[in-house]
Amino acid sequence: MTSNTEKRYAAIFDFDGTLVESHPRRNIAHSKVCDFLLKYLNIQGEIQEKVLLNLIELMEREMNEKHIYNRNIWWKEAVKRYFSKDISESISESTLNELTTIYWQTVSDESKIFPGVEDLLASLWQKGIKLGLMSDTDGLEGMKAKRIEDAGLVEYFDAIIIPGEDTKDTKPSTQPFIKICAALGVAPENCVHVGDNPQVDILGAKELGMKTIILTPDKTHFKEKILIPDYLIELKDIKKLEELIPELLNEKNAK
Ligand SMILES: [Mg+2]
Description:
Blueprint: E1 9-13, E2 20-21, H1 26-40, H2 46-65, H3 71-83, H4 93-110, E3 112-113, H5 117-126, E4 129-134, H6 143-151, E5 159-161, H7 174-184, E6 191-195, H8 198-201, H9 203-207, E7 211-216, E8 231-234, H10 241-254
Parallel strand pairs: 1-4, 1-6, 4-5, 6-7, 7-8
Antiparallel strand pairs: 2-3
Helix pairs in contact: 1-2, 1-4, 2-3, 3-4, 5-10
The chain binds magnesium ion (MG).
Magnesium ion (MG) binds near residues 14, 16, 17, 196 and 197.
């Protein structure tokens, strides 16, 4: 390969909600965590079970919004709210770790690669575009890397970065975006970032001059969002990215 034909462009993908369907499966993980806690704390009764489960589900929304990814903190907070007092010291660190492992193993077992993802990655690679994968830490060292490996997607990527483990900051900070560009050997302005969460997948990328694409199950979903990607594409149309991404990168080349 001569220097003229070396890959100078890259597409950087997020993982959860972008390449794999893992979010709708979290309710199964919530139930398993809840069952474990009910036994551990000796809680009985249908209403009590429902209250605890609702609190666990609330943690999923609330903590993700605050970018707190360490699930051990979630379980302690759910228990604290359940009892309306802090009894978290009575739950050992190893029990919290066990709960977090149950949670992630369930998510991993239930996750599925979205239809069309592997065709898209293969197509971009064939068109001479480097591929990066960048997905925030799961809050448990090594867990995200394991889930990516379990999904069977590692072989497609030239570089994988886990913000929060490989870098101090998580998305949307520019820090992890800079790091993956360096790992790929591609300038940020020659990259496209593809994610599913406007809160974390747009800002850092845009600041560095990357184009941004958000994949979504439903476009109407995003009417109220302030952060706007360059393209909003429905997951059922993922095949469109096989042409759109090379076009976006060539456009930049022409400028
Ligand atoms: Mg995501």
